[in-house]
Amino acid sequence: MSNVEAIRKDFAERFGEDIRVDADLSGLDEIARIAGRRVHRRYDGRAVDPALLRLLCACALSAPSKSDLQQRDIVVVENRTTRQTIADLIPDMPWIAQAPVFLVFCANGRRLSQIAALRGKPFPNDHLDLLFNAATDAALALGSFMDAARAVGLGCCPISVIRDHAARISELLALPEKVIPYAGLCVGWPATPGRISPRLPLALTVHLDRFREDDLPAQLAAYDARRAAIQPYAAQRDPQVWGEAAHYGWSEDKARQYAQPQRTGFGAYVRARGFNPE
């Protein structure tokens, strides 16, 4: 199958539409990798060479950074006891313990104030933007790492749920004030091909000139039906609370998920870590 055919096939599965691809475009190998992106939670057990891991970290930290502030760091969790402790906090994700490599990407709002002190300058920017920029830098580094890992054949699974246990993970990793865990990442050689995750249609998420959502109900219904046909949920979330829905799709699952409080203590944790999110 050519790159053009593979891209169109994968995007049709992901978005439910035929995305036009110019066969004369340069970089189609990379676009095909992006189009075929899959999450991998099962690994074949082979180790990841430390030199390769360091190369991928260099790729991650080559990502764009807001104003060249470089407010992100990566913790490679090699200690098996530490890794198992993190895995035990999240028992429904056994791949945290099983993956050959586990990383924690951190948002670092600390280094700038340290630099200001070293240079004898004031630091009047201790407010929400400091946290927002650091989190964005961490996200960009995470995405760049995953792109580089896929390019060499590795599989990845990001773990945002570590923020449910942010204080404990900060303690385990000895994160100082104003450095917080943004996301974990499992890395390894895939044991299975993985599968495409269907996404919301571009008609709902790409806007021309101004934001529009007047057709949200219809777009969601179509997406729910398409996704259920490709990747149905194995079980309904919290049926003891909400009952069994006749048609259970993505929108019902996400509505149920966020019907329960999520990370209500995270703001207090961020403040306790020295950020001022005001």
**Shape designation:** globular
**End-to-end C-alpha gap:** 52 Å
Q: What fold name stands as the CATH topology of the domain at 39-194?
A: NADH Oxidase
Strand segment count: 4
CATH structural class of the domain at 39-194: Alpha Beta
Strand content: 5-15%
Commentary on this structure:
The mean pLDDT is 95. This protein has 278 residues and is an alpha+beta fold. A four-stranded antiparallel beta sheet has the order 1-2-4-3. It has 13 helices and four strands. Among the domains are: 1-37, no CATH class; 39-194, NADH Oxidase.
Which tags fit this structure?
278 residues; alpha+beta; NADH Oxidase; 4 strands; globular
Quick description:
The chain has 278 residues and is an alpha+beta fold.
Blueprint of the fold:
Elements: H1 3-15, H2 28-35, H3 50-60, E1 72-76, H4 80-89, H5 95-98, E2 101-108, H6 111-118, H7 128-151, E3 155-159, H8 166-172, E4 179-188, H9 202-205, H10 216-230, H11 239-242, H12 250-257, H13 266-272
Antiparallel strand pairs: 1-2, 2-4, 3-4
Helix pairs in contact: 1-2, 3-7
